[in-house]
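Usage

Read records sequentially. Each one opens with the input sequence:
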Amino acid sequence: MYQQPPYYIRITFKLLLAILVFYVLNIAQDILIPFIIAVLFTFMLLPVSDTLRKWKFPAAVAILISIVLAILVVSGFIYFFYYQIASFADDLPVLQEKLMNKVEGIQNFVFRNFRISKDEQIDFLQSKLAENASSSGTLLLGLFSATGAFFANLALIPIYIFFLTLYKEKIKQFVVAVVADEKHQNVMEIIKKVSGVSQKYLKGIFLDVLILSILNSTGFMLLGIEHAILFGVLASALNIIPYIGVLIGSILPVLMALLTKDEIGYAIGAAGVCVVVQFIDNNFITPYVVGSSVSINPLTATLVLLICGSVWGVTGMIICLPLTGMIKVVCDNVDYLKPYGFLLGEEVDYTKNKFRLRR
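and closes with the structure output:
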């Protein structure tokens, strides 16, 4: 008669399995990241291709049209950023001059209050830069290498989307074929919910970024901050990255205000715009636009953000929440995984869904 191994052996096995999974995710990221992005966009574009097929378009043509529309939207967004950054680059000489004036003012302040000469300050900064030059160079080299590899695989995303959409029924039939007959209905319900989560989340995020871009840009323009639209849209786009993106997006316009304005009140005003817009987003925009499609509690979101960031970098930080939301949907609809779904989510009353951890 088979005897189950002790509990500590099973825990050890699960930990080793988790380590193996993270290792595989890390070394296979150039393949997995474009494929996962393609899966998310496939869910989002399904209503478009399905509508076109109802209008008697051939399946392949309908899918191609939906992909082309998505490419046009993304290309328009990229062109907008390119135009704004090019305009910003034209002002770099002026900004550099203002930066040198600010630095000279700081040096004078340090000399007056701490009696450290400008030469000593420069020597100190140069020594610190020299200490970090090697590690910074290695970091930048790795960043450009990873970015180059990502863009090299970016061309695969439309191909993945096309075949995932074209063979969606085949994939459904495969999933049904590998599960027991009595679970067919439950599996189809899970697939439907996962698709709904990804669609609602991605559509909500795009609309949320659009609204925040208008609010941020308007606030920065009223303050007279140069390149207000660029910083407003950038702060809104970085909001996709939970927690960290909000912080980075808020720092940039504040630094611009400190650099280009003589009074610190403008920097405080820029920070105030970011705080007010973020408050509006958290309490009014996100609950109605994005909704509870990804009802992940803050602790889980933070841990997932850090883990995905360490494994897949910035891209992992962007796609971590929709992936976690999809995993939670699966956990909530599979009996022995319900405790994990409860742990991931924001539910506070476990008595509504009675479950027991399997030992």
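Summary fields computed downstream for this record:
- DSSP finds 13 helices and no strands in the chain.
- The chain has three domains: 24-166, 182-292, 294-359.
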